[in-house]
Write a structure and sequence with these properties.
16% strand; globular; single chain; 387 residues; alpha/beta
């Protein structure tokens, strides 16, 4: 039996694959569909203090071949009070109370984030709701006039310092697990600076989710000779399969640099069970799915989980810990094994093609014989020939 359940930041997930905050997470109606799927938990839309509509439309775009997507949504959401309301959580989780419900926040400034964390703390302390964890978004690139906190290390340090000073984190144990959503990094010193800040606050940071979209991407409408996105001059966050390789590198480097007490969640370009497998192999404890959920719907979680289980069964892994973080060094032996497996797969495909062709030929022969019989019977019936 293959087991893909994990414990993330002390929170049990029924599967290691769950949704990223963003697509199809704005309402309880949308989130309830996630709860009913194979997703290991439900992460709500990144909330601001008050509800907001976000950037002007059109603010999203998908490449025809499905390899890339852009979004400059500007955090449209219903406000923090909606996402921590007992009715919203009840409508979301429905018959899936065993799954964790998690909240994401992305304030316009540090004061907003502190206020939302205090609201969440008060709600949890009241005992009226079960909020399993909170994700602090340090990575949104689509707020007009606002820098990405995760790229401003002085600001990031200040944010974490003020968050750590809140009563909910001042005791021997935080009131709730806190995760941080990180932007993509591209230079080793930047990885090291970001990881150093998170390690400094490891007493309050339970996980780091890498990566958010790659900011400042631009797609052009060839015919109209203009950007496909309206807001911010067309500049938007890049997501989908195009970012997977950057995401894998970020997961690998963050896992190497972060304290072992801080889990890593892989996000970015996850479309298949193989993508999830590779994220975990690089050190991710769990995997978030965003763009694929956006384009395919919540059924993607069932498919990706089934594909991951099939891969694990084929490789002889019984659970996620059997291979998590065990990416091997490059070797000649590895190249030889890869070549052997590819040839085996190719032969299998060729054999299948031959069998399919033979089957098609047999079918064609049977159809031809049936037509001949029908023709003879019709000819006899019309007295063209006598049987």
């Amino acid at each position: 039996m293959v087991d893909i359940s994990v414990t993330l930041a002390g929170v049990p997930l029924t599967s290691c694959v769950y949704n990223a905050s963003g697509p199809r997470t704005g309402s309880s109606a949308a989130m309830s569909k996630i709860a009913k799927s194979a997703s290991g938990g439900v992460l709500a839309k990144s909330a601001t203090i008050a509800s907001q509509k976000g950037n002007d439309l059109p603010r999203t775009w998908h490449e025809d071949n499905g390899k890339a997507s852009l979004n400059s949504e500007g955090l449209p959401n219903s406000g923090i009070d909606y996402y921590i309301d007992p009715q919203t959580i009840s409508e979301t989780m429905g018959e899936s109370p065993a799954k964790p419900y998690m909240v994401s926040i992305s304030g316009k400034n540090i004061a907003d984030n502190l206020q939302m964390l205090q609201k969440i703390s008060s709600t949890i302390e009241s005992g009226s709701v079960n909020i399993a964890a909170v994700e602090l978004n340090l990575a949104c690139p689509n707020i007009v006039g606002k820098p990405t906190i995760g790229y401003d290390f002085e600001q990031m340090e200040d944010v974490m310092k003020q968050v750590a000073s809140l009563p909910c984190f001042s005791g021997s144990k935080p009131l709730f697990p806190l995760g941080v959503k990180m932007p993509p990094y591209f230079d080793r010193p930047h990885f090291e600076m970001a990881a150093a800040i998170l390690n400094k606050y490891k007493h309050i940071v339970s996980y780091a989710a890498s990566i958010n979209t790659i900011g400042n991407a631009l797609a052009i409408d060839y015919h109209a000779e203009m950007p496909v996105i309206r807001a911010k001059g067309g500049f938007a966050g890049l997501s989908g399969p195009a970012v997977k390789y950057t995401a894998l590198a970020n997961v690998k480097q963050m896992r190497e640099l972060l304290d072992n007490s801080i889990d890593v969640v892989g996000a970015g370009g996850v479309q298949t069970g193989r993508d999830a497998f590779e994220m975990i192999l690089c050190g991710a404890t769990a995997v978030q799915v965003g763009t694929c959920h956006w384009t395919e719907g919540p059924g993607c979680f069932d498919r990706i989980c089934d594909e991951l289980k099939a891969i694990m069964k084929d490789k002889g892994y019984g659970n996620v810990e059997d291979f998590r973080g065990k990416l091997k060094e490059w070797s000649k032996e590895g190249v030889a094994l890869s070549r052997q497996m590819k040839m085996k797969s190719k032969k299998s495909d060729t054999s299948g093609d031959v069998q399919l062709k033979a089957s098609n030929n047999n079918s064609s022969l049977i159809i031809a014989i049936l037509f001949a019989i029908i023709a003879v019977l019709l000819a006899d019936k019309l007295n063209i020939v006598s049987l």
